Known about the structure:
Elements: E1 8-11, E2 19-20, H1 41-49, E3 55-60, H2 67-74, E4 78-85, H3 88-98, H4 102-111, H5 116-124, H6 130-143, H7 171-183, E5 188-192, H8 195-202, E6 208-212, H9 220-223, H10 231-238, E7 244-250, H11 253-261, E8 265-272, E9 278-285, H12 289-292, H13 302-308
Helix pairs in contact: 1-2, 3-6, 4-6, 4-7
Amino acid sequence: xxxxxxxxxxxxxxxxxxxxxxxxxxxxxxxxxxxxxxxxxxxxxxxxxxxxxxxxxxxxxxxxxxxxxxxxxxxxxxxxxxxxxxxxxxxxxxxxxxxxxxxxxxxxxxxxxxxxxxxxxxxxxxxxxxxxxxxxxxxxxxxxxxxxxxxxxxxxxxxxxxxxxxxxxxxxxxxxxxxxxxxxxxxxxxxxxxxxxxxxxxxxxxxxxxxxxxxxxxxxxxxxxxxxxxxxxxxxxxxxxxxxxxxxxxxxxxxxxxxxxxxxxxxxxxxxxxxxxxxxxxxxxxxxxxxxxxxxxxxxxxxxxxxxxxx
Length: 311
């Protein structure tokens, strides 16, 4: 199996660059999500641990693949995790896993005989229960190019290593991930709806932390069905948050200007994908000094990263 993203991350701050250890990041999400945050997990651990009192609740208002929320739940980095997702397809998956249909979904995936005809038949179904919608969403996410769920994305042809549609369909792995999440479902709650409105309703709470990862400005329309976000309005809303928050964005001039407008701290983090393209994402918060501190353990060995970065 070829990795989805062989990722190396490093700080581009003026301090000497240090590589973040992604080799120690377990894969927990059933999604292979464009813009997924597996590479950020070591920094998320530090962010949630670097405080005087534990976070009572981590709120992820743009859940998507929810790797940050899942990490917080599995590793007890917050007493409770709340996921919010606007996309009804993605919402159906989280609702099924967390609200009682996890066994059915896991079994449906593990017994599905993958072929071009079976994919066409499953994705062509119009009358679906919520759990059937969850299954077809996972299927679409796994067999469409790049894991893109937005309209217009086609089913992969060559796939990885020439394996075609089979190259991202790991039924037993998906089964294990789904059942593992369901096994600790009491640590989570899920809402389908507007993440920005959820922030607004909970901004007064000092006991929570928000991880805010909205659709990005450059590729959002291509990658996500619900990509329309008032970015300036979101930053303005972040100024009203009484507790802590961490935002991630594409590192573009527009976002840097908005962050400066609201006097937020920024820290660029560079990463290298499987095509060896160097990309930079931006961390945004009130004070990111914790993200600039590097310890001797912040090292990565690419061969191990390659083995552990499979989506």
